[in-house]
Design brief:
Layout (H helix, E strand, L loop, with lengths): L5 H9 L5 H19 L8 H17 L10 H22 L4 H6 L18 H20 L3 H12 L4 H7 L4 H20 L5 H7 L2
Helix pairs in contact: 1-2, 2-3, 2-4, 3-4, 6-9, 7-9, 8-9
């Protein structure tokens, strides 16, 4: 396996040629290795899973070669795609046998705002602001969204359920799901801004 520059990766993978197969094999091997490190914590990851994730990532990488801007090393860019692919599939596994009601209700009486949204590295003042905003977000989700908006938003944003699967479960279509999520986001933003915070301040708290 040889080191390649960004230009060499793009040239080799851009069109079938003498170096195409070798570059593809090198890329696949490096993706599998990188995913092994990135996913070392979950105990249910099998070698076959890493191979499947890498194969799916390869397809996305090849399709998206034209989007690579050279702002980082090619392998760094490719590994990020592979990790996103892997985590998307792992999220699907989590919700595959879970109902939308269970996702929305969560554990302990509806506390479905993940605690990991509170940044442990933030200072005490910033953490306090984050908690206040999350409390407001939860209130809006609980009391000011329609039932369908709430189900769509929580399933899509917090649990990563894809639009097509969400549409199937909600007995609707993809466009309707997008509108539900769009309307729910607008409502959340409006209510957060109504607390007196600017849009920049809301975003800054969760940088």
């Amino acid at each position: 396996m040889s080191e390649r520059t960004n230009e060499q990766w793009l040239a080799a993978l851009g069109s079938p040629g003498a170096d195409y197969d070798a570059a593809l094999a090198d890329l696949r091997a490096q993706l599998v290795k990188g995913l092994g490190y990135a996913l070392s914590a979950p105990g249910n990851i099998r070698p076959e899973d890493l191979e499947d994730f890498a194969q799916d990532a390869l397809l996305k990488i090849l399709d998206g070669l034209h989007t690579f801007r050279g702002e980082s090393k090619f392998m760094t860019w490719a590994q990020k795609i592979a990790v996103r692919v892997a985590f998307s599939e792992l999220r699907r596994r989590r919700w595959r046998d879970t109902s939308l009601d269970a996702m929305t209700e969560g554990v302990g009486g509806g506390e479905f705002i993940p605690p990991e949204l509170i940044d442990p590295d933030a200072d005490s003042e910033q953490q306090a602001m984050q908690r206040l905003l999350l409390q407001r977000v939860r209130y809006v989700i609980d009391h000011e969204l329609t039932d369908r908006q709430r189900r769509a938003l929580v399933a899509a944003v917090l649990h990563g359920v894809p639009p097509d699967e969400l549409a199937r479960r909600m007995d609707t279509n993809r466009n309707a799901v997008y509108k539900l999520i769009h309307d729910a986001r607008k409502r959340l933003k409006k209510q957060l801004l109504a607390t007196g915070l600017s849009a920049q301040e809301v975003l800054a708290v969760f940088e």
